[in-house]
């Protein structure tokens, strides 16, 4: 833990929140799971970029273990918000962009059924 006592915990949670905000804001321009550069990702259609951002957030929370009941509630809220509908959205994108190699490469790592 960073620091001791209440002041240390406050600084810890502020630092954690800032890190989470920074990581979340970086999602649209970096997609290491897809092996794409920032320029390649930026060149994708907007609906594909939006899907990638949402599904990456979904996958993040799918892999997170709750540490307490409050965190479990937050994880479940985010799972519903970010994951619901992504199976159908992925299927539509794969169908719509079936001949677009860049899009198909970007979508390839995503599981078809997670809901």
TrEMBL record:
Organism: Azorhizobium oxalatiphilum
Protein's name in the database: Uncharacterized protein
